[in-house]
Amino acid sequence: MLKINSVIITGSLNYNNTSSMSKIYLSKSTFIKGLQCEKSLYLHKYHSNLSDDTNLQQQAIFDRGTRVGELAQQLFPGGVDASPRDYTQYFESIKDTQKLIKDGVEVIYEAGFCFNNVICFIDILVKKKGRWYAYEVKSSTKLTDVYIIDASLQYYVMQNTGLDIANISIIHINNTYNRFGPLDLKKLFNFVIVTKDAINNNNYIKNKLLELHSVLAQKSIPNIAIGPHCTTPYNCDFKGYCWSHVPEYSIFNLSRLNKKIKWTLYGRGVMDLSQIPLDANLSDNQKIEIDSYMNQTEIIHKIKIRKFVNSLSSELYHLDFETYQSVVPYFDNVKPYQQIPFQYSAHYEHNQMVAHSEYLAKDSLTDCREDFIKNLIRDMKQDGDILVYNISFERSCINELIRCFPQYQSELLAIIDRMKDLMLPFKERWYYTPKMKGSYSIKYVLPALVPSLSYDCLEINNGNLASLTFANIHNVTDEEEVGVIRKNLLEYCKRDTLAMVKILDVLKSI
Ligand code: SF4
To answer: Of 78-92, 252-266, 457-471, where does mean pLDDT reach its minimum?
Structure first.
């Protein structure tokens, strides 16, 4: 099945009617794009080569939408799939839909419609007692305004083609569903009827379509400046093009600076940190960042750092978890999007000696959480503090494990009690260098403090990639390839805890 909703239609569409060849069509996704920014719509339609590359994470989001859509179809079994075979076959699909309707088919997946140069494909269309019920499926856990507009557009197009729609609903993921036994689709999904909103939005949709079609008829790229719309509601994929004048380190990197203030400053022509006016309402940490940048100096609060280092036990673990999320829970006692730890690395330091231990689960289809817990408890058996980087993450993972495996509560709580956060000195700006570019993430702190050790040479060099790689490892059939992937995952996590050892060494040397 081709998932239409996650695919953005590019260029004019082919139809076996030459008059339609020259028409410019809007789809649901290009409509939403145009609502966010008309320039983005125009660039997408005529200059798609300027778009940023699709990264693995975006691809994973598209794939997730497809999987969730297919799963939701099972709520209405026995339907006929009208989705196009490929991206050039949209109008074939629309014709097929009409034929299916005429033939009396009562459940249609990816039903296609076209009205006034707008095409849309509804995920599920069901006929009950002579009237049609439309369902749009979202892999998100929340109903957003964009989804309602999205459904309103579909409703507008379907109604105008003459289809009698009793109601239109959005089906989205219910994140309170805790799986036990077979997957219960009725509990996994929430249904929200949005027909009233769709009717109320009718004029808005009609006017917006006129506006967006006139944008597409223009001869030149709309003159729209960058702004908050570049990231809301979605990250625009033309940022590389439109933001090229913004320096790599600018006011947009200043940590915890309110978005409104950032855009007010930008509106006043301020981009470089050195141009920030004295009257800007900045926090102490933000002033430290600016001062450090302007003078190219390191900020080091020796007393605070020494106090932190001295508070650590002589026997010490450096611990790091990797997790993955699955929208559909594969195991009992798992909720949609729950963080599932699948890997850890631990460096143990004592008397100048450093030892390493690690764990990596089999694959994301196997429930390895209990195995993870047993290994973790065994590997943390020595006394001493357990240093992590960003304590709230590891703590919440363990608390979630306790919820699912209460029989290990006391050992796991003891691990939490021993945890301390290596991120603290950097988050509190006790140690700051301009190379950290306003961030206290270990990915910025490590190159600033230990330039000889980096993630650059690793095949897997960030947590998102590790998570996506592990979540898909079961799809790799070649055993040798699986071995290489596992080695890369282990190397990545080990680098994280080695980085912590080296960062602490720098702090100790102060
Ligand atoms: S980057 Fe911003 S200004 Fe440029 S097209 Fe995207 S939303 Fe519009």
So the answer is: 78-92
Q: Assess whether the C-beta atom of 41 lies below 6 angstroms from ligand 1.
A: no
Domain count, the chain: 3
Provide the residue range defining the domain that includes 258.
Answer: 246-297
- The Å distance, Cα 17 to ligand 1 centre, comes to 34
Is residue 289 located within the same domain as residue 309? no
Q: How far is the CA of 270 from the centre of ligand 1 (A)?
A: 19
Spatial distance between the Cα atoms of 159 and 23, rounded to a whole number of angstroms? 21
Q: What is the pLDDT of residues 95-117, one digit of tens each?
A: 999 999 999 999 999 999 999 99
* Parallel, antiparallel or unpaired: strands 165-173 and 131-138: parallel
> How far does residue 328's CA lie from ligand 1's centre (Å)?
33
List, in order, residues 6 or more apart from 443 with CB less than 8 Å away.
455, 462
Looking at residue 11, its pLDDT comes to 40
The predicted structure's pLDDT at residue 278: 74
Same domain? For 385 and 328 the reply is yes
Q: What mean pLDDT comes out for the span 452-456?
A: 90
- Using N-to-C axis directions, what is the helix angle for 391-404 and 409-417, rounded to 10°? 170
Distance 87 CA to ligand 1 centre (A): 25
**Same domain flag for 292 and 317:** no
Candidate of 226, 237, 244 to mutate for ligand 1, largest count of ligand atoms within 8 Å of Cβ: 226
Q: Which two tokens stand for residue 237?
A: 């994929």
Residues 351 and 450 in one domain: yes
Sign of CA dihedral 503, 504, 509, 510: positive
The whole-number average pLDDT for the span 127-155 is: 96
Residue 168's region, left for phi above 0, alpha for psi from -120 to 50, else beta, is beta
The pLDDT assigned to 20 comes to 39
Per-residue pLDDT band for 451 (boundaries 50, 70, 90) equals very high
Query: CATH no. for residue 72?
Result: 3.90.320.10
Please report whether residue 32 resides in a domain.
yes
Q: To the nearest whole number, what is the mean pLDDT of the chain?
A: 91
Structure confidence by residue, pLDDT tens digits, 322-351? 999 989 999 999 999 999 999 999 999 998
Q: Is the dihedral of CA 268, 271, 273, 275 positive or negative?
A: negative
- Give the residue from 118, 133, 214 showing the smallest Cα distance to 171: 133
Which residue among 212, 223, 224 has the greatest number of ligand 1 atoms within 8 angstroms of its CB, and so is best to mutate?
A: 224
Residue-level pLDDT at 458: 92
Structure tokens at 144: 């957003």
CA of 383 to the centre of ligand 1 (A): 53
Q: Closest Cα to atom 5, ligand 1: which residue?
A: 40
pTM: 0.86
Substitution site in 36, 39, 45, 46 for ligand 1 pocket (most atoms within 8 Å of beta carbon): 39
